[in-house]
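Anyone? Bumping this.
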Amino acid sequence: MGMPTPVDLDTLDNGPEPSWEVLDRLLDQADDKALQAYLEELPLGELAFAVSHLKEADQLSMLERLPPDLAAQVLDEVPYIQVTEWLDDLKPQSAAAILEELPSDEQADLIGDLEEKDAEAILDEFEPEQAESLRELVRYDDEEAGGLMITEFLAYPAWYTVQNVVEDLRENAEEYNRYPSQYLFVVDDQRRLSGVMRMRDLLLKPMGARLDSFMQDDPHYVNHHDGMDVLDDFFDRFPLLGVPVLNQQQHLLGIVIRSDFMEAWGEKQDEDYMRSQGVMEEELRSMPLLRRMRGRLPWLTANIFLSIVAASVIAMNQDILAELIALAVFLPIVSGVSGNAGFQAVAVSMRELSLGVVRPEEVGRVVLKEMGLGLANGLILGLVLSGLAWFWQGNLWLGLVVGTAMAVNTMFSAVLGGCMPLMLKKMKLDPAVASGPILTTLTDMAGFFLVLSLAAFLMTRLAS
Amino acid sequence: MGMPTPVDLDTLDNGPEPSWEVLDRLLDQADDKALQAYLEELPLGELAFAVSHLKEADQLSMLERLPPDLAAQVLDEVPYIQVTEWLDDLKPQSAAAILEELPSDEQADLIGDLEEKDAEAILDEFEPEQAESLRELVRYDDEEAGGLMITEFLAYPAWYTVQNVVEDLRENAEEYNRYPSQYLFVVDDQRRLSGVMRMRDLLLKPMGARLDSFMQDDPHYVNHHDGMDVLDDFFDRFPLLGVPVLNQQQHLLGIVIRSDFMEAWGEKQDEDYMRSQGVMEEELRSMPLLRRMRGRLPWLTANIFLSIVAASVIAMNQDILAELIALAVFLPIVSGVSGNAGFQAVAVSMRELSLGVVRPEEVGRVVLKEMGLGLANGLILGLVLSGLAWFWQGNLWLGLVVGTAMAVNTMFSAVLGGCMPLMLKKMKLDPAVASGPILTTLTDMAGFFLVLSLAAFLMTRLAS
């Protein structure tokens, strides 16, 4: 974790010529040195961009030709999903050599996401005990502490003195440099965690002092099966750079580094966003067409049937529509605008849930809050729309119908949108995915129904 | 930054009775001790929830009654927007006393977001030179390095020995414990940055060694005016816990801590999400109604006019609709589903932009990619819908019309949705906010137009 040579951050903005063309050239030549030199010099942010524009074959040959440590740096730069693709296709030896250069948590994540046989082939390239510990890590879910922890940490017995530790640090400085943690852990002969200290604390103590004479006992920890929400709350609450991970027997298994967790947390929210927009599988445009269809088509097809359901409300009231065709103009307006009012409420609920200021049980409170706001906004929107309708179609009663429908449906949609994430979360469903479709369908149906049934009720007046 | 006493993370799930009721009781009693004790024991995640359920007056009196350091912890727990509300309303002395307990970057952020006069009143409570340095920090934009940095860091002259440093650390251990950074900086007599080392490096060196004998020279740094994208790229690329911030004269002004940045970055994306859903001002349901309306109403009103524009396409073709009222059923289906195909493309583009695998100039590439996928999906969706229409309305030609419209509009919407974020970014507009409205309006118009004009073209066949 030493400091690499400085990089001119300005190259970010005024980048040079599109660098994948240069890469292309270099790959066609046999000159690996030049390729290396170029990649090592590549300005910040260029690499992912350049690589993602290469033909897949070229991407692989590049990785095969680079020294493993540099190849590993390339992996760090490109989207995760792309990395797994590569590892599946690389020769096991090459893949293993590159993985060797990564921290244990990334090794486990990647191997866990490979196809069974590729994973096994790669693991066979590791030394048996390393392969074994990797297999254990792989068994963890990516979203639990055990799946996010690294197993590179420093742990010493309680009777060690500062002197002992410093000597050990000196001997293994080379290796320990790769350890991100700034903490030392104190464990008993069962490797049960008994204390912790920051490395810099050693500076302030006499060389002869025993670790247990100044360590923090009762350190914080998480259980290896704790989920991301527990970790998120932990790091929210405590300004620590990492947290030790213990199993039921209190054995120290590893540590979750704050920045690693933050990254994973960010990716998780990234995927939630994609799924909330109906992209069901991670997609990069460099992927083959069929693969990309698989991610997008399911939701669109489901969407057709949902909107048929909504539109059937119109079908059932065609006669009313036929009597006053102008209503057809306002159906999409009412359902569309009030639908958006619902999505605003969804957004606020999603955020309040993630901030922890509202809980799934509090549907009642949210209903009240959204009812008030929905009514207020609904009335204003209703007035605006009825005015427009009156002015546009020269029909006061028409204005009354669509205005009322808008007001009522806006309130309905806001209340519904506000509660949905809470209820879905309570049902252990993913609010990000499910909120949208349900809300759209229901508010469309309600909107169509309100406009058309109010019209039916006032038809005599409307037709006049 | 020492380790607080452990917390039972289980209380997260099976929390005790809603704790704001307890808080309410404690606030009614005069017993500050009990209130403190309760807050100090409050399980993880409870605090923000509890406080956000108190009446505003109670929230303030609670802060006034707590010892400043505990009050500062409360501030750390609740949403930022709420904190600024409080500081505006607290007595300047109390506000200043609480701010004293926070790191300089948070002090500056908060003071910067207060109303002018409140900010000045609070700053007057600080010692002059501290107030001055705060005023300087406040001048920075929240989203540039200077606005994100903390000014608590350790810097020593090059001729200092390990001995000198360790003595200084010993003397000021108390204060330095609040410093999050794990690095030591080496500066010349002008406070220009000349080198850096990790604290733990001191452990490995003889007490007599001069800092410049083993420091890393040419350390990385960012300029105080660099934006969040530069910092994001920096922390992506280098596994460092912080980065020094220099001005044009290379003076060391402060450091940006990785975890602080990650937090700010996460909040930024949070706000983008809210705005993308049409919530224009940060909202918590605990805020007053009018304030919440201000955040939601503008977009809804704009939305009415946009959807009027779209619906005017229907208005202009009412006669066709009147001839075959069944078409009205399919208008929302075609525009809705293809609209969603567009939002999928928006999501993929937003993500590829943030991953750096696509650039604003690459509209051409995205058009091609989305055209292929949009056509493929469009054909399938078109077939499905025409089949459904034929079966449902018993009119093959109707099926042909809506199926074709669906296919064409899906491709159009995908292409449009894919390019929009790139084009908006190029125009320095916020893709998160602007993509949605534009896309919806255009795909609705196109969808309505396609269905109705195709119908007009085939009307003889349709009517038969």
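Late reply, but here is one note on the structure posted above: The beta strands of chain A are 154-157, 183-187, 193-198, 216-217, 222-223, 242-246, 252-257.
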